[in-house]
Design brief:
The structure is a homodimer. Helices cover 43% and strands 22% of the residues of chain A. Chain A is an alpha/beta fold.
């Protein structure tokens, strides 16, 4: 199984990039991982947000394959704890899924078409996080999920 | 009103320190803020975890004053969204509380005596986060709470 982590826009905060890099490196001990920054659409005054999100959504959907298991981070999603996420990933692994794609939206969110494509819509918290921080948190949770699955110590 | 953010141990990951520093700077636009790293107790083989946590707990409790409003981050706590946290902080501000103390535990958690002292036990998510990341997340949420209270734009 491979993992593809998709975000919208480049992560601007250097410290978040550093944190994500640390977790992606650790995740790669367990499976091949690619990360992909989808080009952000410019939001200009007077431009409808739905048009911006639609463009970004089309770019995201173009990167997905029919057989992908798609996880979308969204506030409307289901809540689970870290063990639940690990158990879910373990089922996907043993079910022979070829690729899991985890998608985090941009500053303005995600177009409904992306959410509709999701096999799992996941909410990290009832709290609202900046999308860059959300990308760090999900990287940490994926790493944690593997340590839970394998019963290995969590390395800081 | 003043804010005191207490953590156990120094934050080791430089990138997390940088992120926290960015948020504390922004929080200080709104109110005086101090941060305090409580000395970690060494966990040596064979030593009971409860002894470690008790020592750390005593150090935390020694820093608190009777009139403090104490928020403790803990997985057993209540879940709230960012607007709810902002509304709660606004009530504390208008209620004339002199100081809010927000406490994040260390690698091994927190002693029950600290949780018992809490006026509010708060859970950031059903997911388990590393305590250093939790310190970053709560700093971000406190900053966000002020932008919500004041109706000001969230600056990245």
């Amino acid at each position: 199984m491979k993992l593809l982590m998709i975000g919208v826009g480049k992560v601007r905060a250097a410290y978040i990039r550093e944190g994500i890099a640390g977790y992606t490196k650790r995740i790669k001990r367990y499976l091949p991982l690619d990360t992909l920054d989808i080009k952000e659409e410019r939001q200009t005054p007077g431009r409808l947000l739905s048009v911006v999100l639609k463009k970004e959504g089309e770019r995201i959907l173009a990167k997905l394959e029919g057989a992908d298991y798609v996880v979308v981070l969204h506030e409307t999603g289901t809540h689970t704890n870290s063990r639940g996420l690990a158990a879910h990933m373990e089922r996907l692994l043993s079910g022979g899924k070829k690729r899991i794609c985890i998608i985090t939206g941009g500053a303005y969110g995600l177009h409904p078409s992306v959410i509709e494509r999701a096999d799992m819509v996941l909410s990290l918290s009832e709290m609202t996080f900046p999308h860059e921080l959300a990308r760090l948190i999900i990287a940490e949770q994926v790493y944690r999920a593997f340590t839970i699955m394998r019963g290995e110590p969590y390395s800081h």
